[in-house]
Amino acid sequence: MKHILAALALLVALPVQAAEKLTVALDWTPNTNHVGLYVAQAKGWFTDAGLDVEILPYTDTSSGTLVATGVAEFGILSAVGFHSQRSMGADMTAVMAVVQHETGRLVFNGEREDIQRPADLDGKIYAGFGSAWENALISSIIRHDGGEGRFETVTLGTSAYEALANGSVDFTLEVRTWEGVNSVLLGRPQRAFNYADYGVPDQHTTFLGGNATWLAANPATAEAFVKAAQRGYEFAADNPDEAGDILIAETNGMLSNPDLVHASMQALVDGGFLRDPGEPAGLIDPELISGITAFLFEAGILRDANGDVHKAMPDVSGWTTNQYLAQ
């Protein structure tokens, strides 16, 4: 009995190992692209992995910059932002494909009889968001359909959707799993052109990325975090309704339209955007990486560390890894 009591006393005296603190930066205000993180947080899977994870609120500083500079160990990264920053030598690596395929599309009022094909967009007004990617993308789509690729741009940001609805612009770009489902909920008829139908390669549109220097120094912690996040996205793919409820609850009232959240979750699942058949959630396809990088390179969008346009296609072999995922 004395031996048992002594052993118990020793256990009590031993220090409790503190959970390792990690931060994750978001690329935008909370939405369904972030659902796996919030599921893993709510289910205690980060805690089970010995991690104390803080999901940082969205700020004007991009998530890619926060990750590359080491302010955050991980971040949700938009595809174009990731490719652009990585081509300039940013210290980050994509460790998981959050959204497996292109969710963007070019949209216009569904009642417009004068727009039947992309070539009809020549000379029309585009409501944009201020990136070089948009001009290259839209021009390429129009030219692929036999047009000249000429259009007028007004930069409106998220006001683009109201402008499209009231007819002050002719077309814009949207994410079908968010703005697209919202337009249905609002009763706004739309038609769309899918990028891939007009020569634009498919891509993973959202990544989970990590600071490359930190990843190399902390492989076990990185793997624990990525696998817990992957488990969250696997759960969301299998249980979209419950995952949507968790996202709403965990974001403390920031998502005020439950119908939009649940419609978006269903669109992600129905479209196969969270997981390809027969594959684990999060798997990165190297062919998709090289394909979209080649498109961006040929469009003259990718720049080097000096800000000069790349003269040769960048080597993308070290930009991504699947090594931390559960296979």
Descriptive account of the structure:
This protein has helices spanning 2-13, 35-42, 45-48, 63-68, 79-87, 132-144, 160-166, 176-185, 212-217, 219-238, 240-250, 258-270, 286-298; strands at residues 20-25, 51-56, 74-78, 92-99, 104-109, 125-128, 152-155, 171-175, 190-194, 206-211. The longest helix has 20 residues, at 219-238. The model is unreliable at 4-16 (pLDDT under 50). It has 327 residues and is of the alpha/beta class. The chain is globular, with a radius of gyration of 22 Å. It has two domains: 19-102 and 204-298, D-Maltodextrin-Binding Protein, domain 2, CATH 3.40.190; 104-198, Periplasmic binding protein-like II (D-Maltodextrin-Binding Protein, domain 2, 3-Layer(aba) Sandwich). Strand 6 (125-128), helix 6 (132-144) and strand 7 form a beta-alpha-beta unit. Helix content is 40%, strand content 17%. Strands 2-1-3-10-4 form a five-stranded mixed beta sheet. Strands 7-6-8-5-9 form a five-stranded mixed beta sheet, covered by helices on one side. The chain has 13 helices and ten strands. Helix 2 crosses helix 10, helix 10 (219-238) packs across helix 11 (240-250) and helix 11 crosses helix 12 (258-270). Keywords: Iron, Metal-binding, Pyridoxal phosphate, Signal, Thiamine biosynthesis, Transferase. Residues 1-18 form the signal peptide. This is Thiamine pyrimidine synthase. GO terms for molecular function: metal ion binding; transferase activity. Homodimer.
